[in-house]
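quick q for whoever's on today - can somebody do inverse folding on this one?? i tried earlier but teh output was garbage lol. tokens:
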């Protein structure tokens, strides 16, 4: 940035900058700098844990062809005649089990993460860096948050989807929503879209240290399960790198933790519908371990930046109950990194490369 400022100052002296460059701002000490903002994008959540709130969210989420790649007319019929009527009340009850006083955990924790990250980046670069959270589906929406960034005259935008490992169903969908918005804008900012970060050394180190710290306080269980959100197997056959990168990350974490091969496994959770999904499945691994006599398991989900329905309800409640039903005694969920300082610092390292 110092070299850029020197070039700009020389250009001003030479009279090359007769008009104010809209990409630049003047600071209090009259130095010029690009004004950069950050947009964290997460999947989305209902505005309320009621059947109506869940229906609005699921209808928008499941209508995206990135998520369900079926002919539009066919899927519309299935979605409204079968899927929504069967799912909204059950999903609503699940959300009610984990709903916080401030709202949905995913939204609350994502917004807290944005606040901490803004402080981290501002300290690194020496000037304020606004960080906003947006949802691909639901609120706060990408258009709404982008308008707030526009009001702050942001000319460089760093977009970090909070999905450590790229998938067309998550990161790809966030990209679609953002480009669909920018397509309508007369003036668009310089855009840096971060494809994924789950294999970045800073992220893996932070996650490994989080697991080690948990064990230092609570001791290790007999097994460790890395549980990643699943995707349809067909997606991978079409070129989605998600599954491959999940396996790479799990192996890298196992090496960092120095744990033997027979101590850990990788599983995929949250499958939906009748298509074939990535395997092995988290619930089947837990059932097998329990029937083999394993009494205690620690489970961590590296694909979730913050805790949400899939971790707080699916893993902490459903998976624990099924593990005990099959003969296990204790299943402990190691929380997502959320707003832990290691997580904030790791994301700060990744974003700081673009300043």
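ok took a stab at it. sequence:
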């Amino acid at each position: 940035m110092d070299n850029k400022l020197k070039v700009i100052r020389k250009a001003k002296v030479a009279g090359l900058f007769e008009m104010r460059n809209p990409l630049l701002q003047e600071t209090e000490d009259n130095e010029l700098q690009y004004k950069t903002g950050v947009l964290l994008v997460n999947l989305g959540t209902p505005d309320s844990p009621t059947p109506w709130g869940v229906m609005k969210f699921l209808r928008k989420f499941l209508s995206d062809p990135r998520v369900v790649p079926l002919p539009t007319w066919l899927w519309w019929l299935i979605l409204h005649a079968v899927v929504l009527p069967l799912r909204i009340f059950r999903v609503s009850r699940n959300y009610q089990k984990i709903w916080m006083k401030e709202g949905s955990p995913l939204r609350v924790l994502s917004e807290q993460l944005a606040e901490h990250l803004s402080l981290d980046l501002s300290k690194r670069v020496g000037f304020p860096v606004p960080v906003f959270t947006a949802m691909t589906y639901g609120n706060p929406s990408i258009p709404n948050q982008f308008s707030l960034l526009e009001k702050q005259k942001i000319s460089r935008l760093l977009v970090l989807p909070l999905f450590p490992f790229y998938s067309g169903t998550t990161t790809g969908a966030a990209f679609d929503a953002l480009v669909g918005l920018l397509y309508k804008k007369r003036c668009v900012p310089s855009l840096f879209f971060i494809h994924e970060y789950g294999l970045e050394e800073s992220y893996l180190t932070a996650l490994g240290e989080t697991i080690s710290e948990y064990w230092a306080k609570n001791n290790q269980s007999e097994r460790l399960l890395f549980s990643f959100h699943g995707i349809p197997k067909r997606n991978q056959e079409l070129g989605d790198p998600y599954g491959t990168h999940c396996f790479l990350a799990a192996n890298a974490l196992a090496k960092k933790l120095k744990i033997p091969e027979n101590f850990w496994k990788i599983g995929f959770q949250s499958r939906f519908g009748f298509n074939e999904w990535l395997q092995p499945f988290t619930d089947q691994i837990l059932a097998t371990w329990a029937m083999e006599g394993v009494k205690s398991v620690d489970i961590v989900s590296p694909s979730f930046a913050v805790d949400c329905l899939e971790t707080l309800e699916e893993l902490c409640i459903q998976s624990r109950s099924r593990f005990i039903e099959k003969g296990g005694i204790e299943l402990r969920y190691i929380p997502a990194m959320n707003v832990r300082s290691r997580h904030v610092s790791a994301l700060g390292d990744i974003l700081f490369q673009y300043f």
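fwiw Confidence is low (pLDDT under 50) at residues 1-32. also The CA atoms of residues 14 and 38 lie 34 Å apart. so keep that in mind when u check it
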